[in-house]
# Entry
Amino acid sequence: MLEIPEQLLFDDSSRARKIYLKHILVTISSQESEFLKNKLCDKKISKSEAIPKDKLHNIKDLLVYAPNMFLDQLESTLKEYKELTVKFRK
# Structure
């Protein structure tokens, strides 16, 4: 038994959505939280901050020549940059 009014399941009002979001925030798992952070941060990146597609393609094409040690360090460094970006955008 869900122990909630049946109408709440089909209510798409702003009030009902806020109630549902509050419930999610209270019960969110760390994996779900990380997913939301990633999605929210992706939307915050402005067009002027976005990496041009041709540059991304060039880098991707060149990565096949990089040794695994470099790739591991690159991944680690990019994750650190991401964490800093998320931290300072709050």
User: Anything to note?
Assistant: Residues 16 and 39 are 22 Å apart (CA to CA).
